[in-house]
């Protein structure tokens, strides 16, 4: 391993490590624009200049392009290196607009930081600045081409890393332009990463435009709830409104990026139509009154129909804490029907997949990126787990063949890779034995249990995509408690009442059930049909745990307080209901914010447990799940196989 000295600090790094990365291991930050850990080096920005004082190479060099070698003596503070970096900043600022006060990137802009750090504060250039015409790139991405510093990060990500073809670089010399041949919405399902990857304000989040500065945001480490992959995110909120979602690096899960679904699906959290106050027969009541009414009607239900006729329903999107306590409540009530899945087929597929993966054969997205062969078995990755598409593409870029078993040919276009489509009925026909790091990707939506059984006879690792952010956790609980699918319970004719906790129940299954209690934060059909509605907190309004498709338990943290966003408060929350709602908080003294009478789903279940005579629940982790207290507070997660 090469040994070198950087700013008088001895450093030893693996072969092939650049001087820039070697400096990071020693805690030394070398300014750079074009380099990115996921994209590598191109030496385009010339900002990472260092001075090599001794060794096989000497003089001013670009640290991102220079492999670390034995005997190198590197200085990042040499006057020549400092002068080089300051001049680079100055020529980049020659054409850069001085619009920091109105730029959404202000406060999180690398150019802004390096300009200050480099000491550039006086403009010597008196010529006319180069200007460009911006493009409309769709509803999500704002384009401000005049801020570009030609680092090529956007094109390298969009075309090379993500496989997009409708965005690129045009022109030459000082007329270089990054955009589309014609205006239009970006087609890649990963286009939102341009916002994170751009070191200046060329690409910003249009959905949060002019809403807040970086230092105004309420932020916390979180986990994306829109599929089972568990991508790590940082939601940003202000004034009880979720403004935007940013990617959070986790090498074992999503790497540096997230998909557009996870980035731009904030409308449901901010929706004024969300359940925000408890309802009993359509009338607004307090939480205590709603819980009292729930217990009273449960008692009446038991007298009318007898024990065992009430079903408790969870779902793959219910956090682990709520699912664990729901099983405990089922024991106290004495019901025969504890359900975590609505459809029988869905429950059987998840249970079969959990059993298959319990022997440690699960593949993470990092495993997929490093695979030497990928088989996609009857799965529409763009719908079931978009970031898995990106992982498959990285494997293909490294030379891994990709086989498609099934009918989802559009995957080849989405990936921009060469996929060999093979019409096979069983996975054994794919020649996996000749590969060392083969991965089979399949999903529960299209694959019957028989297909899952065929995977048991392969030696490849398996990435099984589930129908929700905590479907793996629900599958574990289903196996542990012998839970059944709701469709099966309703078909028996014995179910006459339902308590649904963040569960999406088809209207057909609700038709013959006279008693429904719904606790949810989405305005689902179950909520509309329920006699008692308890509003719960969304994932950004509480702490919780999701178990990803690979059995990795990840914590998400509370980002913002519950309540209606200040922007667009209904008039009924103001002192003068006859006037339109102004952009100002209501001048009314209250103990909670308007629409803030929300509680985590696990807290609602805990209240019922206590009212049924169970022990008080002061924390969400109970029983043998207490081992989850050891989770990384930053949400990187641990595996659950010891359970």
Your description of this structure?
It is a single chain. With 643 residues, this protein is α/β, with parallel strands linked by helices. The strands form 7 sheets. The chain has a 7-stranded mixed β-sheet. The protein has a 5-stranded mixed β-sheet with strand order 2-1-5-3-4, with helices on both faces. Strands 20-19-18-21-22 form a 5-stranded parallel β-sheet. The longest helix has 19 residues, at 287-305. Mean pLDDT is 86; it is low at 422-426, 622-636 and 639-643.
Tell me the major beta sheet.
7 strands, mixed
Find the count of extended strands (DSSP E, 2+ residues).
Answer: 28
CATH class of the largest domain: Alpha Beta
* Percent helix: 25-40%
Query: Helical stretch count?
Result: 20
Quaternary structure type: single chain
CATH topology of the largest domain: Rossmann fold
Please describe the topology of this protein.
Elements: E1 3-6, E2 9-12, H1 19-25, E3 49-54, E4 59-62, E5 73-75, H2 79-93, H3 110-117, E6 141-143, H4 153-161, E7 168-170, E8 177-179, H5 193-197, E9 203-205, E10 218-219, E11 222-223, E12 232-238, E13 241-247, H6 260-264, H7 267-270, E14 279-280, E15 283-284, H8 287-305, E16 310-313, H9 320-333, E17 337-339, H10 344-357, H11 365-369, E18 373-377, H12 381-384, H13 386-397, E19 402-405, H14 410-415, E20 419-422, E21 438-443, H15 449-455, E22 461-465, H16 471-481, H17 486-491, E23 497-501, H18 507-510, E24 515-520, H19 525-529, E25 532-535, E26 544-547, E27 552-556, H20 601-611, E28 638-639
Parallel strand pairs: 1-5, 16-17, 16-23, 18-19, 18-21, 19-20, 21-22, 23-24, 24-25
Antiparallel strand pairs: 1-2, 3-4, 3-5, 6-9, 7-8, 10-12, 11-12, 12-13, 14-15, 14-25, 26-27, 27-28
Helix pairs in contact: 9-16, 9-20, 10-15, 10-16
């Amino acid at each position: 391993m090469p040994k070198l000295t950087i700013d008088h600090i001895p450093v030893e790094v693996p072969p092939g490590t650049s001087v820039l990365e070697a400096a990071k291991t020693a805690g030394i930050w070398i300014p750079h624009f074009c380099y990115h850990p996921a994209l590598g080096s191109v030496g385009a920005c010339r900002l990472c200049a260092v001075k090599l004082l001794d060794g096989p190479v000497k003089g001013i060099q670009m640290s991102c392009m220079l492999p670390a070698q034995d005997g190198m003596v590197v200085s990042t503070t040499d006057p020549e290196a400092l002068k080089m970096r300051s001049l680079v900043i100055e020529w980049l600022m020659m054409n850069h607009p001085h619009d920091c006060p109105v730029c959404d990137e202000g406060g999180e802009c690398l150019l802004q930081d390096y300009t200050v750090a480099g000491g550039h504060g006086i403009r010597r250039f008196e010529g006319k600045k180069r200007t460009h015409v911006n493009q409309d790139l769709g509803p999500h991405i704002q384009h401000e081409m005049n801020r570009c510093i030609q680092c090529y990060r956007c094109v390298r990500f969009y075309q090379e890393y993500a496989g997009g073809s409708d965005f690129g670089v045009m022109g030459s010399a000082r007329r270089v332009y990054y955009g589309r041949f014609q205006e239009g919405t970006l087609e890649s399902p990963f286009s939102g990463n341009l916002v994170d990857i751009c070191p200046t304000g060329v690409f910003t989040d249009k959905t949060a435009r002019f809403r807040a500065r970086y230092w105004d945001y309420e932020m916390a480490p979180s986990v994306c709830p829109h599929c089972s992959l568990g991508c790590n995110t940082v939601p940003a909120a202000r004034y009880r409104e979720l403004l935007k979602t940013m990617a959070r690096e986790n090498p074992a899960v999503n790497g540096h990026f997230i998909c557009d679904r996870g980035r731009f699906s904030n409308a449901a959290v901010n929706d004024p139509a969300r359940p925000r106050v408890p309802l009993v027969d359509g009338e607004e009541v307090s939480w205590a009154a709603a819980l009292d009414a729930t217990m009273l009607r449960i008692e009446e239900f038991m007298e009318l129909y007898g024990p065992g006729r009430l079903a408790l329903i969870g779902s793959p999107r219910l956090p682990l804490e709520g699912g664990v306590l729901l099983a405990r409540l089922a024991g106290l009530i004495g019901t025969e029907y504890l359900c975590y899945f609505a459809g029988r087929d869905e429950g059987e597929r998840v249970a079969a997949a959990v059993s298959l993966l319990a022997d440690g054969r699960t593949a993470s997205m990092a495993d997929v990126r490093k695979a030497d062969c990928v088989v996609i078995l009857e799965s529409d990755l763009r719908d079931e787990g978009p970031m898995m598409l990106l992982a498959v593409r990285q494997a293909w870029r490294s030379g891994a063949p990709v086989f498609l078993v099934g009918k989802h040919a559009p995957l080849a276009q989405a990936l921009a890779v060469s996929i060999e489509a093979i019409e096979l009925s069983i996975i054994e026909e794919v020649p996996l034995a000749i590969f060392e790091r083969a991965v089979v990707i399949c999903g529960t939506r299209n694959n019957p249990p028989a297909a899952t059984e065929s995977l048991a006879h392969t030696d490849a690792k398996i990435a099984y995509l589930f129908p929700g952010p905590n479907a793996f956790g629900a599958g574990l609980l289903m196996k542990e408690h012998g839970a059944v699918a709701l469709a099966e319970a309703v078909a028996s004719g014995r179910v006459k009442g339902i308590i649904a906790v963040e569960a999406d129940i088809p209207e057909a299954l609700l038709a013959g059930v006279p008693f429904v209690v719904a606790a949810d934060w989405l305005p689902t059909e179950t909520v509309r049909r329920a006699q008692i509605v308890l509003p719960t907190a969304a994932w950004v309004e509480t702490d919780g745990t999701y178990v990803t498709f690979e059995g990795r338990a990840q914590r998400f943290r509370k980002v913002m307080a519950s309540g209606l966003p200040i922007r667009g408060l209904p008039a009924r929350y103001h002192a003068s209901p006859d006037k339109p709602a102004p952009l100002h908080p209501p001048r009314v003294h209250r103990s909670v914010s308007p629409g803030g009478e929300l509680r985590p789903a696990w807290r609602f279940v805990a209240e019922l447990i206590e009212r049924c005579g169970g022990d008080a629940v002061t924390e969400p982790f109970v029983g043998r799940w207490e081992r989850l207290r050891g989770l990384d507070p930053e949400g990187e997660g641990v595996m659950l196989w010891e359970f």
